[in-house]
TrEMBL record:
Keyword flag Membrane: yes
Transmembrane segments: 57-78, 103-125, 132-150, 162-180, 187-209, 229-247, 263-284, 290-307, 319-338, 350-370, 382-400, 406-428, 435-457, 484-505
Source taxon at top rank: Bacteria
Region feature Disordered, mapped onto this chain: 1-53, 508-528
InterPro entries assigned to the protein according to its UniProt record, in alphabetical order: MFS_trans_sf (IPR036259)
Protein name as it appears in the record: MFS transporter
Organism in which the protein naturally occurs: Actinomadura barringtoniae
């Protein structure tokens, strides 16, 4: 008897009309078995088809959670707020006033260590499992936090801060690879928005945890300045474990030897700059520090332009140049502004204005998501428009009086965040994982360069005002130096926008599509 192909319900109706007992006893058994087998096969096929989609969605959710948790854990380790806890730290560590410069220097080792780790970790994350590299970075970060909080001497404290920086650099590189493995459009945008936001909020969050001493409120735990917000690292560790459980079957192409060489290209200048940034703290004049910062800026811009023309590290929309923009004009602009706002709040007996900086972070995320939703043809305009918003923000900062109130800070901070987030997310459209990692290797040195420039300008202004006899004079000198930095930053932004215009002007490069598809051989670029 041929197999029956009707459903079970249809067969039951036919069965009730069967004329003979033989039919009623034999046909239902065979046909019911066939129908049940067919139903089971359909259900199994539907489950098999649905299972990869569910697993893919869960894997993307785990990577999203890792992005939202790990980037804040990295950013809060970068600020150096040891000046706010010098006295309790000196007493607890048993050092004299002569040892305080070493303490401040030890607290500032995180950022130089992070920029050293990024190129090496980028190669490791491409060569080995990005999840294991990510977990290794978190363990380094957690160990550094524990060492800094339990340190009983300056050398151990310095080691803890170095471990935090190394872990931060490893986490950043591995996280980019994890995001690019998903081959989506929104995850890179979320990464760009979150990365920009945490750079804007890092110093305000650190100052909120370790405020300036006001002479009235008893100082808090001095160890918080050297290992703030450990709960962020714990949340990132949970996300890393979720990524380990939900392994992604999709993978990026194996890196070629040329890609590994290009990713390691920034390592040598970054190492030299990190060394000089530490050496300049040993009594170098503000003018000498300014010269080092200018040389580093020229070197970074040259590397970004050259890398943008490379087949491996280049991108259609100048990702490397925009990474330098974000590094120079987020943390080095928002950080000193937060310090001035904190000093003003202490002088006026007011609370630290954290909300304007949080609004800037939210604007960065919104700008990045908006850039991801734009048509591909509008992405180049979004990159240039983001630079335009940054220029507007710098002009508004020059017109803003920090002492007039914290809410007024929203005027420059919101366009700064929106412009930086939009430019970075738009520049990642069509960028491969090699281009993103190369840009990241330039971003952290740009952060350190901006810090060196603004601090040298402020120190030079204070030096010209000697002798300083009051805190009000010191605040005025710091504000004047910061305003000079805003003018310099505006000029730098114009130059960076011109560089973006130059590297994205070639029609063949602007129209090149390196995006992966859901079918066929996967490539290393996210889908815009």
């Amino acid at each position: 008897m041929p197999p029956h192909t009707d459903s079970t319900a249809d067969f039951t109706a036919d069965f009730t009309e069967a004329p003979t007992p033989a039919t009623t006893t034999e046909i239902p058994a065979e046909t019911s078995a066939d129908a049940s087998a067919e139903t089971s096969a359909d259900a199994s096929a539907e489950t098999t088809e649905r299972s990869p989609r569910v697993r893919e969605a869960l894997t993307s959710a785990a990577v999203l959670l890792a992005t939202l948790a790990a980037l804040p854990a990295v950013a809060v380790t970068l600020p150096n707020t040891s000046l706010n806890v010098l006295e309790p730290a000196r007493d607890a560590l048993g050092i004299t006033n002569d040892g305080l410069p070493d303490l401040v220097r030890a607290a500032g080792l995180t950022l130089p260590a992070a920029l050293l780790a990024v190129p090496v970790a980028a190669v490791a994350a491409r060569r080995f499992s990005a999840r294991l590299v990510f977990l290794t970075g978190l363990l380094l970060l957690g160990g550094g936090l524990a060492a800094a909080r339990l340190a009983g001497s300056v050398p151990i404290l310095a080691g803890g801060r170095v471990a935090q920086g190394l872990g931060a650099g490893v986490i950043l590189s591995a996280l980019i690879v994890l995001v690019w493995e998903r081959r989506g459009r929104m995850l890179p945008a979320v990464w760009a928005g979150t990365f920009t936001a945490v750079l804007l909020v890092a110093m305000p969050a650190a100052l909120y945890a370790t405020p300036l001493p006001d002479g009235v409120t008893p100082p808090g735990d001095w160890r918080v300045a050297f290992g703030p917000y450990p709960e962020t690292a714990a949340a990132a560790l949970i996300a890393a474990l979720a990524c380990m459980v939900l392994r992604n079957r999709d993978s990026l192409p194996v890196p070629r030897h040329t890609e590994r060489g290009q990713l390691l290209l920034p390592a040598v200048p970054a190492a030299g700059f990190a060394f000089l940034s530490v050496v300049t703290t040993y009594g170098w004049s503000p003018g000498a520090q300014l010269v080092v910062g200018c040389i580093a800026l020229v070197a970074l811009l040259g590397l970004a332009i050259v890398g943008s023309r490379d087949a491996t590290t280049g991108s259609p929309l100048g990702c490397a140049v925009v990474m330098v923009t974000v590094g120079l004009l987020t943390y080095p602009v928002a950080g000193p502004l937060a310090g001035l706002a904190s000093a003003t709040a202490v002088a006026n007996g007011a609370a630290f204005p954290l909300i304007p900086f949080a609004a800037a972070g939210a604007a960065a995320m919104l700008g990045a998501l908006l850039a991801a939703r734009m048509p591909r043809d509008a992405a180049r305009g979004a990159v240039l428009g983001g630079h335009g918003l940054i220029i507007v923000a710098l002009l508004l900062s020059l017109a803003t009086d920090v002492a007039s109130g914290g809410w007024l800070l929203m005027a420059p901070l919101i366009p700064l965040g929106a412009g930086a987030g939009m430019a970075l997310a738009a520049s990642l459209r069509g960028a491969g994982v090699g281009a993103a990692l190369f840009g990241l290797a330039l971003c952290l040195p740009a952060v350190l360069t901006g810090q060196l420039l603004v601090l040298s300008l402020q120190a030079g202004r204070l030096q010209r005002m000697q002798p300083i006899t009051s805190a009000q004079q010191q605040l005025y000198g710091l504000t004047a130096g910061y305003r000079l930095w805003l003018i310099v930053a505006g000029v730098i932004t114009v130059l960076l926008a011109a560089a973006c215009l130059r590297v994205t002007a070639t029609p063949a490069r602007a129209s090149r599509d390196t995006r992966p598809r859901r079918t066929g051989t996967p490539t290393s670029a996210p889908t815009p």
